[in-house]
Design brief:
By secondary structure, the chain is mostly helical. The chain has one domain. The protein is built from seven helices and no strands. The longest helix has 25 residues. 38% of the residues are buried. The C terminus is likely disordered.
């Protein structure tokens, strides 16, 4: 029961992130989901910062809880590695809270630099989690994992290209769409991964149990 509860945290974390994004954008009059990033909702000086910070903190806590269930319930190296990668993603998120970006128009600071660096590390560990996790639950889940990586990196690269204008405080058309497709492809994968593991028979054991659950 405890294991399934912690695995359910993987689903809950994705839901919490969605709630933070949707409700945070509604609390900021004039915010553009299409042309502004998710990080801006938690930026210093934004009207949504206080609200979304609590939800993003909850997201990271739930993600670490999910990771602990994956690691502790696993007897396969790939599954343990996937759990470790997910845990690092959560802890990077906690660290990133100490380096919030500023609203547009503010001079570039160490916070923006650290945010960019931590984002790159996060992407690296997300890819690792999907690669290792994708090996644990059959061919269909592996194919889905590969597709997730392609979508996440493709749209992430697009948003990064558009985001070059942020340094010079230039318009960033469609960065919000590109970034959100990238982010939510991973969040969807996390929720599906949690469901796959929750459907595994009884207590985790052989590789066949996970393959059968896919």
């Amino acid at each position: 029961m405890a294991r399934k509860f912690l695995l359910a945290c993987g689903i809950a974390s994705s839901v919490i992130y969605l709630v933070a994004d949707v409700l945070g954008s509604l609390r900021w009059e004039g915010y553009s989901v299409a042309h502004q990033t998710v990080s801006e909702l938690a930026a210093i000086g934004s009207p949504s910062r206080g609200f979304v910070m609590w939800l993003f903190t909850a997201y990271n806590v739930l993600l670490v809880a999910f990771a602990s269930a994956v690691v502790l319930s696993a007897d396969r190296t790939d599954l343990r590695r996937a759990g470790n990668q997910i845990a690092v993603i959560g802890w990077i998120g906690v660290l990133a809270a100490f380096f919030p970006i500023h609203v547009r128009g503010y001079a570039w600071t160490i916070n923006e630099t650290m945010h960019s660096v931590l984002t790159m590390f996060t992407v690296f560990f997300i890819v690792g989690a999907i690669v290792f996790g994708g090996r644990t639950a059959g061919e269909r889940f592996r194919a889905y994992s590969i597709a997730t990586i392609a979508i996440m990196l493709g749209f992430g690269a697009w948003s990064g290209w558009i985001g070059r204008g942020l340094v010079a405080d230039l318009p960033t058309p469609w960065i919000g769409i590109a970034e959100r497709v990238s982010i939510y492809s991973y969040l969807a994968w996390s929720a599906v991964f949690a469901v796959v593991l929750m459907r595994a028979r009884d207590v985790p054991g052989s590789a066949a149990r996970y393959a059968d659950a896919a």
